[in-house]
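Give me the 3D structure for F-box domain-containing protein.
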Amino acid sequence: MLAMGSEEWELYPSYIGSQVMEYRPISEDSDDDWNGEVAVSLDAVLPDDLLEKVLSFLPVASIIRSGSVCKRWHEIVHAQRQTWSKMVPQKPWYFMFTCSEEAVSGFAYDPSLRKWYGFDFPCIEKSNWSTSSSAGLVCLMDSENRRRIMVCNPITKDWKRLLDAPGGKTADYSALAFSVDRNSHKYTVAIARSNQVPTEYYQWEFTIHLYESVTGNWVTPFTGVLLGWRGGDECVICDGVLYYLVYSTGVLVSNNEHRHCLVMYDLAARPNHTSLMSMAIPVPCALTCGRLMNLSERLVLVGGIGKQDRPGIIKGIGIWELHNKEWREVARMPHKFFQGFGEFDDVFASCGADDLIYIQSYGSPALLTFEINQKMWKWSVKSPVSKRFPLQLFTGFSFEPRLDIAS
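Predicted structure for F-box domain-containing protein (407 residues):
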């Protein structure tokens, strides 16, 4: 692991089974004229439920760190308690790591305390795995066979492997989406696969596979054919609808039309015979790439804006929100921030939750945040990840830090 300049912090599971000192309050006044009154720790008289309530107002990092104060606090922090479901809402963290064939380890950024923590992420074996997060859980798909699926809580390190997903290696493109019900903690995994029809360049078979944690099984509610469009690796579940970004093959699209389009699939109705392209929504402008995200059940698109004469070359970054099947521009990245990345790639990483968006260039460890409600751009504290050679690549994804949810 790389050396960090910021504070080192061992995560939640590191305290499990570790030795914890009994807490014994002592008086700070040892003078001979001490009046004999007994010094009593507030902790000693505070009932468990009130102590839990007090701790629940702290950031997650502070709660976890408090587990090393004494044996009682350790037991409270690590117990599966309902109190943690009533915690003050936490801003999503960002896990950053380098792209390599080595075991994945990196650093997690906490925007509330503006600190980076050394972080070994559970389950991820290689840096090219696909990820999708929701309500404290992260879903991961092995990008080699695209069948192996994991669900984990990065903070508690709880994880499980799901049944292998249908399709897999035979798919040309696979996209992963994940949605957790915040009340019941039930979750849905969606995988959208796209395969080129043999000998037909402009026809692509499109299939949706769904996994429900309630049943523990996969179903395939939709299979269709896209004409002139192919799938990719970008999709998200928002308010019960699967949104999927598709790409023009250049056969049936004129030069004046955009190269990206958004298709929708209702996960509640689950129609098995429908024309997805008949309801497709064009992207707001020519994009070099697009990143979809669910911000409090609002569908948000972060896209690289292409130059007018060369749409494949990025000139800026825009943020849009979908309202009644129409895009409304939220913001455009100010030029000083765009330049702050140095050489910005046409394709980049971006994700978020709640009201916070993260943007990162694959060629730099610099991390920019955007608070969508306040429309505020801000650099993170400098990342402890350093660039060791010119072609080194970086990536990452966000997740909500929660203690109350299990896979």
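Confidence is low (pLDDT under 50) at residues 1-34. Let me know if you want a second pass.
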